[in-house]
């Protein structure tokens, strides 16, 4: 029989205390392991971008598609780290380019479409971005009823540059439509010419349907953009500089919406001004600038703030 633990004659082995060098080595090992696991995470990439000051083009398509299904903390931090003003434009331009490519692939093997159907398809392809931003604006801090803060600038900036880029794309395509001919274009599906539309009896009804669906898409866009603008106003300091930035963008949007109405017939009114396009958002923008006494004759020098 073995003697009990505390029996006389049995020696208990005491643990040997670690030396300071061993303790230091253990601490270094633990911290290094945590550091290496952090390198591959999105949070580290966002932090590295902030510290280095680099302006890598963030894949907004991937980020907003993920937000369409689930809003994660790492994605929110990545969006918050996006540059403001003109620095945001390359990210949005790549998103718009990918959207046009997807539409091009969708119609590659089909019959020719009319021009209005193409513009509707571009709008519909961008719906994932609208849904993603809508989910971001509705996301709440875990365990609370408070919505995530600090998203006003980036969400409004993205939506502003998307609609501005969309209208520019429509204008560019419309200007070259009559002279483009039937040759294959790397990014545009083949659309009917005016002569072909006149000979096809179905084009009138197709155009009316496309306009109606496009107006519905623009109305939804307006609703989400207005929420983003309200969040921006709540999170900003409401300075004269911010009001001038909004005034500049309101003037630019008014001109762009008028152009879109003229070229597509979307939200057409008697004056052909496109007044009802993004109506709620533009009304709120006018209210904001009016609070600071800004008129349409004033000069705006802060157009690059978001």
Average pLDDT works out at 82
State the assembly state of the protein chains: single chain
The H/E string reads HHHHHHHHHHHH
Using the CA coordinates, give the radius of gyration: 28 Å
Helix content: 55-70%
Q: How many H/I helices?
A: 12
Structural category is mainly alpha
- What is the makeup of the main sheet? none
Number of strands: 0
Apparent shape: globular
Contiguous low-pLDDT stretches (5 residues minimum) are: 35-55
How far is the first residue's CA from the last residue's CA? Answer: 83 Å
**Strand residues, percent:** under 5%
Topology overview:
Layout: H1 20-39, H2 42-52, H3 60-69, H4 73-80, H5 89-106, H6 115-125, H7 127-138, H8 152-180, H9 194-199, H10 203-235, H11 240-264, H12 279-291
Helix pairs in contact: 2-4, 3-7, 5-6, 5-8, 6-8, 6-10, 7-10, 8-10, 8-11, 10-12, 11-12
Give me some keywords for this one.
306 residues; mainly alpha; 12 helices; 64% helix; globular
């Amino acid at each position: 029989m073995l003697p009990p633990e505390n029996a006389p004659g049995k020696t208990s082995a005491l643990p040997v205390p670690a030396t300071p060098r061993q303790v230091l080595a253990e601490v270094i090992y633990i911290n290094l392991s945590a550091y290496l696991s952090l390198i591959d995470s999105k949070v580290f990439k966002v932090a590295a971008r902030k510290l280095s000051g680099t302006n890598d083009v963030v894949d907004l398509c991937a980020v907003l598609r993920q937000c369409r299904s689930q809003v994660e903390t790492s994605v929110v931090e990545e969006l918050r780290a996006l540059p403001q003003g003109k620095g945001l434009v390359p990210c949005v331009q790549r998103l718009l380019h990918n959207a046009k490519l997807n539409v091009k692939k969708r119609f590659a093997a089909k019959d020719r479409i009319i021009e209005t159907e193409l513009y509707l398809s571009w709008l519909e392809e961008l719906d994932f971005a609208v849904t993603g931003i809508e989910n971001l604006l509705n996301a709440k801090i875990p365990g609370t009823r408070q919505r995530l803060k600090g998203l006003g600038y980036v969400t409004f900036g993205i939506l502003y540059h998307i609609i501005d880029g969309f209208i520019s794309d429509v204008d560019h395509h419309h200007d070259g439509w009559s002279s483009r001919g039937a040759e294959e274009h790397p990014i545009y599906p083949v659309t009917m010419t005016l002569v072909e539309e006149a000979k096809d009896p179905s084009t009138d009804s197709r155009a009316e349907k496309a306009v109606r669906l496009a107006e519905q898409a623009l109305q939804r866009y307006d609703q989400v953009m207005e929420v983003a603008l309200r969040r921006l106003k709540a999170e900003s300091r409401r300075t004269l500089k911010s009001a001038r930035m909004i005034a500049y963008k309101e003037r630019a949007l008014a001109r762009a919406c008028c152009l879109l109405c003229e070229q597509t017939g979307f939200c057409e009114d008697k004056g052909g001004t496109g007044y009802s396009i993004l109506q709620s958002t533009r009304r709120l923008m006018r209210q904001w600038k009016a609070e600071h006494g800004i008129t349409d004759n004033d000069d705006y020098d802060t157009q690059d703030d978001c």
